[in-house]
Amino acid sequence: MTATAIRFDRSEFSNQPFPLRLAERMRRLGTETAFEVLVRARALEAKGRDVVHLEIGEPDFDTPQNVIEAGVNALRGGFTHYGPSAGLPKLREGIAAEVGRFRNIQVSPEEVVVVPGGKPIIFFCMLALANEGDEVIYPNPGFPIYESMINFVGARAVPIPLREERQFRLDVNELARLITPRTRLIILNSPANPTGGVLEEQDIRDVVTAIGDRNIMVLSDEIYSRLIFEGQHFSPLSVPEFRERTILLDGFSKTYAMTGWRLGYGVMRPDLAAHIARLMTNSNSCTASFTQMAGAEALTGDQASVERMRQAFRERRDLMVDGLNRIKGFRCLRPKGAFYVFPNIEGTGWTSQQLASALLDEAGVACLSGAAFGNYGEGYIRFSVANSPENIQKALERIEEWVKARG
Question: Which of 40, 58, 341, 384 has its CA 20 to 30 A from that of 93?
Fold first, then answer.
């Protein structure tokens, strides 16, 4: 018996492309609005408009020269191949030493997983810890990828509001009421994006008390920990009885102006670190080896650039806050960390999205709607002060002129 080939004549379907059938989970995936606004701003610039960029959360400083040289030397020295999924031993050892020194604890390299940027730690922790229907408490307004990843894995996103009257520090009593038997993970972010709020040591200890002996983990996003202007940074990793329930997220992008290098890490109990490393194996294989060698130099080399950048951001923060508080309809707290300001704009009578769009289209100032960071961000907008004092002053003048023209 001879098999007969079945032939299809596609000519009658040539003008009818197959529809894209996405998995249902893609409907739950959010985005990061900063990149969308950047595209809009670039489109205006392409038409000849001058735009002051205060939308993107990226240091405007260059990577320190010693770090660049370490990366170049690594490329020339053969660090162009695969490395271990959890990271090169040299960098893991350096991170363990730095985290331990900065937070006054002992950290082993086995607790460290190196990843390409900070976001993979958020994503991997959701995948590893949260089943469908489990609850994850996250700050709102907060970094939008928290909520996006919670929803993507099918967990339930439970917002903890950050309010202006508390200097955008969470209310621990409110947090305690949100904890249920389904709570698997609580996300903390200090200093915070978008508010610049900083949790004090007592806040952290109160969170630990609120959780008590329940088997709930905390993902502590400390990516801005070296950019604090008032007070001292304190991590839940430094609370001995909570050490094994804390996952630290940190990285090189903000502290060392290395956003494009894509280099971040997580510090966590070794058994969880092994699972996060498996997720790295399945997704990225490993972080670029030459990038990791540059990161090792960043940790052990001259730290003067970190302090210079911190002082510059503090001065720019003051310039922006003082300027905004002189503009009708704006009211702005002085954030204690990161490089954002988050003014209340309810006095303008505009919604957050309306005002952010108008400032870009009509005043040539790119910023972000507070609502892009969650429902509790409505009534605010976010400005990044990662730009020169001259451009910040130009932005303030444009905003003030626009407000006056509107009456």
Answer: 58
